[in-house]
Amino acid sequence: MTLSSMLFAGKVASLTSFFSLAYCLAFLPVCIILYSLMPGNAKKYFLLAASYIFFWLISGKLVIYLILSTFSMHYFGLWIDRTQNKMQLQLAQSEKEERKNIKKKYVSNLRAILFLAIALHIGTLLTLKYTAFFSSNLNTLFSFFRLPFELEIPKYIMPIGISFFTLQALSYIFDVYNGVIKADDNFFRLALFIGFFPQIVEGPICRYRQTADQLWNVSKIDYINLTHGIQRILFGLMKKIVVADRLNPLVQNIFSDYTEHSGSMIAFGAVCYTVQLYMDFSGSIDAVIGTAQIFGVTLPENFQRPFFSKTISEFWKRWHITLGTWFRDYLFYPVSTSRLMKKLTSSARKKIGNHYGPLVAGSIALFCVWLCNGLWHGAAWNFIFFGLYHFALILFESLISPLVKLVHKTMHVNTEWKWYKAIQIVKTTVLVVIGELFFRAESLSAGFYMFRKIFTDFSFRSVLNEFTNIPGIDLPDLMIVFVTVLIVFTVSLINEKGISLRLVLAKQNLAVRWAVLYTMIVFIIIFGAYGFGYTAVDPLYAQF
Amino acid sequence: MEKLIEILKDINPDIDFETCENLIDGHLLDSLSIISLIAEIEDAFDIVVPAVEIIPDNFNSAARMMNMISRLQEDS
Q1: CB B32 to CB A337 under 8 A?
Q2: Which of A35, A92, A298, B26 could serve as B22's disulfide partner, Cβ 3.0–4.6 Å?
Q3: Residue A541 per-residue DSSP state
Q4: Rounded to the nearest 10 degrees, how much is the dihedral formed by the CA atoms of A187, A189, A192, A194?
Q5: Residues 6+ apart with CB under 8 A from B6
């Protein structure tokens, strides 16, 4: 018997889901109890150990990637920091005329170090995630041109969460390079920052300044954090197992047997998938943030009621926020404000005005962002299309915005009118659902086939007939989903109005608070999709 | 300050830049305005605004922008 099999390495994959029995009833409670028993200074080391045990249980020996990433960010951070210090020292000791040359020499050294760090982290991700995709596409190209080459298509096993912790590691290195933070010489603090168990599977993608010190200064669990954390986990649990997992058989069936379904059913499937994805991902993030809150750590929010967005660009400021801000800070602004782009912006502004001038450089940067966003989600053409679809929509919104403003002004349209806002929200939601259809489709061609069918084979009558033939879901299931979505919608609506329902609840007396908590638990137990007849669904974003 | 206000007015004449203190948080300046603004500020004040300086704190008001410009002028 090997050591790894004795220690359940990679054998507890169910822990990937924060709503599995293994996590909710074993791993998390044991962690909370042991954490509480630890003396003050040992708590952070306990969290680090728990994080590595968690990763070991879900990924086995692939934990090596996390260790190497941590070593790399630690080493590159210190290398950059020391080079910067040397530069400052030399600049302080030299005459004004010499400074320019000294700075030039050090800046090129620093760029080389940064390039090496990016190559290592992105190179690893590219190799593991995209080699098969690029090789098979090259083979198609070779055969198209009848060239006598054929690349072997490798199969690499990717550790869970690599797309998330790679971006987190890179953000640390960029921040050190930009002088936003000092390099951390404490390897264990860095290891906890990147490996903290709740966030490793699906994010949120945290910045060093947001969480590293909080994690390193954790103290005993207090009552408010414990109860608020549990409430948040329960709310996430409701979204995930009452809605997302219940919709899974329907979505699975429609997207895998898409040729058998009518256009109306495909449209229904696309809506259901959008609901499933939101409930799954935001529900998991609720569990992640709730778990962190129990230990007194505040993680950044990843969602801000995205389905209240009036434009696509607003949608992306509210959906998967930490990924969007990562691309904005480390790709969009560096590209759009690079020397070449600034020249382009200045000359374009003089020729085509204040709005369209910066749009030239902005659209080039935006294209890079959305190509990378699509590819980040997966190595397939439908993900690339998904990214470029959103690029086209955001660009279009920017292009027509002066015209839209003019129309509003001349026609005296009140943009604050609630029905106007409602129409904008519906329009944005429809566009998002179309994007998600391509995102979930088996392939890009399947996506186009399904999209076409919506317009060529649409009838409301066929939906009910087809629905009754789908195994694993029936009308009562749909009713449960509908009621729960309505609950989530009401909570979101109240939050959107700036009222924190959790704070309102916290002010109520003990009986009301516990009644709400018990109602939620009973609701989840009764209506959750688990047990006989249901297959546990892994968090959808963990696969990215 | 006058030079900066002039640049800002050229980018968006409808905003009262002398008093407004939530240019970014209030969504009055979008990313395209920021791209223009940086290109113009760099030209006018002979500085380089690194991408890392593009945070709401530095762009929420003309006074804050001026602070950032002065700081970058001192650094260069």
Answers
A1: no
A2: B26
A3: G
A4: -70
A5: none
Q: What is the CATH number of the domain that holds B41?
A: 1.10.1200.10
E strands in A145-210: none
Quote the number of domains for chain B. 1
Domain spans of chain A?
3-220, 221-303+441-544, 315-425
Residue of A nearest to B47 (CA): A339
What is the extent of the structural domain holding B65?
2-75
Sort out which chain B residues have CB atoms less than 8 A from A179's CB and list them.
52
Distance, CA of A371 to CA of A364 (rounded, Å): 11
Chain B residues lying within 8 Å of A359, measured CB to CB: 32
Which pLDDT tens digits describe chain A residue by residue (544 residues)? 444 444 555 556 566 667 777 888 888 999 999 999 999 899 999 999 999 999 888 888 889 999 999 999 999 999 999 999 999 898 888 887 888 888 888 999 999 999 999 999 999 999 988 888 888 888 888 888 888 888 888 888 888 889 999 999 999 999 999 888 999 999 999 999 999 999 998 889 999 999 999 999 998 999 889 988 998 999 998 999 899 989 999 999 999 999 988 999 999 999 999 999 999 999 999 999 999 999 999 999 999 999 999 999 999 999 999 999 999 999 999 998 888 888 888 888 888 887 888 888 889 999 999 999 999 998 889 999 999 999 999 999 989 988 998 998 898 888 888 899 999 999 999 999 999 999 999 999 999 999 999 999 888 778 888 888 888 788 888 999 999 999 999 999 999 998 888 888 888 888 888 888 888 888 888 887 776 666 666 777 766 6
Inter-chain CB proximity A178 and B31 less than 8 Å: no
Residue A88 to residues A84, A106, A113, A115, B75: CA-CA distances in angstroms? 6, 10, 17, 21, 11
- Please give, rounded to a whole number of angstroms, the shortest distance from the CA of A74 to a CA of chain B: 21
